[in-house]
């Protein structure tokens, strides 16, 4: 969970509630008793309300007209919408990154790649964070602020569905080898300045992602 010593009360409340939502400790649809949650975390209502407003803006929490808060639900439709956006925008970001990357961008991408680890379990938040940093390095290298902000804004929502995909079927050794190969192909294409190859590699990566698996799982449940 979040390291309280390194964060302000607002940031601590936000990170703690966010992580509880991502791992399912606060399950989809659950009403959040704000006073109780604030007491559990050792913060006042003011930072708790600010944290919930931030999570509402990110789509992880829903706050109604009466200021009641609940964890946003999961749906096959939303999973598909997220997948459709990523299927189009992530390859665009990779192509732009190949065209515009700087030496600093390359160094950041290589550093992020060194920290990538296969997902070992459904609550493997450390590996999810490393995966996010790898993709963030590519988004940043696109040098398109609007594109970066859109993709960053979708990431937390997408992580919830990645966990659904992982819970439905854990990655096999072959899955992990494939994902590692896909990451290397994306990185090598970006570094080489090959926009066509970067776009193609990223598209294949997204199409075989946990987000795609989550759609199948949620459709099967409905």
From TrEMBL:
Entries under Pfam families matching the protein: FCD (PF07729), GntR (PF00392)
Domain of life: Bacteria
Domain HTH gntR-type: residue ranges: 7-74
Any one Gene Ontology molecular-function term assigned to this protein's record: DNA binding
Keyword terms: DNA-binding, Transcription, Transcription regulation
PROSITE patterns membership: HTH_GNTR
InterPro entries cross-referenced by the UniProt entry: GntR_C (IPR011711), TF_FadR/GntR_C (IPR008920), Tscrpt_reg_HTH_GntR (IPR000524), WH-like_DNA-bd_sf (IPR036388), WH_DNA-bd_sf (IPR036390)
UniProt keyword annotation of DNA-binding present: yes
Xref: SUPFAM superfamilies: GntR ligand-binding domain-like, Winged helix' DNA-binding domain
PANTHER family given in the database record: GLUCONATE OPERON TRANSCRIPTIONAL REPRESSOR, TRANSCRIPTIONAL REGULATOR, GNTR FAMILY
Annotated protein name in UniProt: Transcriptional regulator
